[in-house]
Structures are given as C-alpha cells and as structure tokens.
Amino acid sequence: MKLGVCYYPEHWPPERWQIDAQQMHEAGISIVRIGEFAWTKMEPSEGEYDWNWLDNAIEVLATEGLKIVLCTPTAAPPAWLIQQHPEILPIDENGHRRRFGSRRHYCPNIPTFHAHTKNITRVMAERYGDHSSVIGWQIDNEFGCYFARCYCDTCTIQFQHWLKAKYGSLETLNRSWGTVFWSQTYDSWIQIEPHNLTVAEPNPSHVLDFYRFASDSWTAYQQLQIDTLRETISPQQFITHNIIGSQTTIDYHSLARNLDFIAWDSYPTGYAETESQNLYSAEDVIPSYEHDLGDPLITGFFHSLARGLKQAPYWIMEQQTGAINWSVYNTGVRPGALRLWTWQAAASGADAVVYFRWRASRFGLEQHHAGLRLHDGSPDTGYDDLLMLKEEIQLLEDFSAQPLHTPIGVLLDYMGDRDAASSQRVWLS
Description:
Elements: E1 2-6, H1 14-26, E2 31-34, H2 39-42, H3 52-63, E3 67-71, H4 79-84, H5 111-128, E4 134-138, H6 153-167, H7 170-177, H8 204-230, E5 238-240, E6 242-243, H9 252-256, E7 263-266, H10 268-274, H11 276-279, H12 296-310, E8 314-320, H13 337-348, E9 350-356, H14 381-391, H15 393-400, E10 408-413, E11 423-428
Parallel strand pairs: 1-2, 1-9, 2-3, 3-4, 4-5, 6-7, 7-8, 8-9
Antiparallel strand pairs: 10-11
Helix pairs in contact: 1-3, 5-8, 6-8, 13-14, 13-15
C-alpha cells in the first residue's frame, strides 16, 4: 500500500516547493500526482513551451525521494487554443455551445483538438518518458465529468460513420430501430442526426445508440493518448485514468481495457448525499451512518466496481481529506475519517491511496475544498490522520497483501449488453 498526494506546484511560489516536498516526505507520502490542469503553463502559446517550472518542481520532489505520476493536461485546454479553434468547445443537448472558463470544455471528436492533444502528449512523453522519478501517467482527468455528450456537427458526422460501421446497411438500421414507427425510416445516412431537439420524445433505440457512440468517443480519445505515450515512454511507466465511480455515461469496461490499471476518485461524503437514489431502491432502508464518514456501502460498492473493471488491484487517485465543495451540504470531517477511508481502501484491494489535495487552494472554484493542509500551509484535520497512517504503513501493506475473498458478484452492464465484452462482473468483497 502506497500513500500519495495531489499537488499543484503551479499554484504556489517556487520557494515553497522545497518546504512542501520535505513535509510530504516527513508525513510518509511517497507518490505525488501533478500536472492535470497545467496545459497553459506548459504551452503558454502554440508551439512555445515552458518546461523550466515543471523540471524544477519534479527535481525538488525527487530530491526528497518522492515518485511522480505525471498527468496529460488535456482536461483544461488553454484560452489561446479555444480562441484559435472555437469549434473545440462542445455543444450541449439544448444546442448551445458551451464557453471557455472552467474545465472539460472540449468535444472528444474534433480533429483539431486531436492534433493538439497528440502534440502536447508527445512532447511531454519525449521529455519525461524516461525520467527515473516519473513512475507513470494519468491520462486527462475524470472523463465524463460535467459534460459527457456533445451534439456538434462533427459528432453528427462521426455518429453516422459509427452507425454505418455497426449496422452495415440502412435496411438493417431501420429494422433494428423500428423506424417504421412515426414514419422515421431513413434512406440516407446523412439524414440521421443526434436525437436531441426533436419535437416529441425521440426513438429510444436512436437515443441508446447515440449514448453508446458518445461513450466510444471517450474511449477512442483516451486511446489516442495511450498510443502516443506508448511510442515514447519507458515500459516501466504505467498508464492509467481516474474515473468517477458514480458515472454511467461511459462504458468503463471498455475504457479500462487498455490501461495498465484503473484508478478512481473517492469522495465518501459527497457520494453518500448524491448517489443514494441510484444505489438504493425505493423499498430499501438506507442504513444510518456518521455524517462525516459517508455511507460505507456506497463507498464499498465503488471500490468493488474499480477492482472489478480489470479484476485486479486499483488506485484511489483522489481521496477526500476533509470538507468538499461540490455536494449538497458539504459537511465537516472529524479526526479519524481519513484513516478509516484508507483502511477501507486497503481492505477492498487498492494498491495506493493518493489524497486530494496537499494544500487547500487560495483561488478558483475549489477554495472551500479541504486539503491535508490549510490555505496558509498549516496542518488540517486530515494531516494528523496521515501521520497515524505513516506509523501503520507496514500493517497496511501486510493487510492489503492478503488475498480478497469475493463470494458475491454483480453483473454491471453500462451499454445495454451490445456484446459479450461490454458487460463484466463487479465482485463485492
């Protein structure tokens, strides 16, 4: 069991990095994840790169014996790229083009964005692909978060190609979709558009296939980055992606297939508030739980989901450390919660727990999202738990090394059982 932390050196003055690195080492941290939202720092303008800050940050961390998980920064395309190519911005279900100014503001099917994605990924891989302190890569960040399906013209064309590859002929598609209903029969592929903006409810078969296409688009976009990395990086460096356990818009069986292992982002108090309606039936009695611990059954289900995707150990790439900022009530977290969540991860088959984040942000949307340390750098509640876990690390490692006993399984099918490979077992411990 390895303990890590998410760190944002670009948010802090360079003279602070050495202090942070020393404190991480002293607290038992061995892994640091960096870079997932730093594209504009890496490439301030097209083709102009600034690696000095990242080189220095990695060197400071490595000097303290810390290993690095380096992220491709494609979850936050920079302003100059959007200004030059506004077609990258996605179009939502209501036909509105979303704007620049947050994150995940891109369509995964735009060729121009593919070219820039390959370029930044390739240049990063050439620079750090054999760095002795970089142990692996996280691709992008939380596919499907905020925006899972784009309805732009490029997606329309790609959807038509996807349908043609799947059905082979319009006759087969019309028969499979039952388009004779409401005179929806197609006699040209270009007549088929996304299902949004119809007057009445659309054909459900049409909707389901568009959802499948959108899911495949994310898998294909991830594969573009996997292929680019594999061409350059050391075989010892792994490739993973951090999923959101509660997402149902992407077929995670497909997404996980070509990754070395899967990672997920664990926020127990938030998921307890937002996912009860999805994981309990109306007849179920929701068990009571402490407000600052989250529902252990929901947390456990997502652990089992992550392990089941590849039937193998997995990572927690973001583990809640205190209060969060995105749920309903965002309750405070008392001492002991972080330690409990870490032990639950170990009991569920996790190989590593990476805490989000080292220090609370001074600006942006996540100012009220806790870290291991407060905004001024002093310890927060979770930090004391981390010090206890440091003393227990050998017990954690011995415990997590024990084989898991999984007598019960759940069949999880995201895509409507379109083929045998799309539905896999999620084993429950």
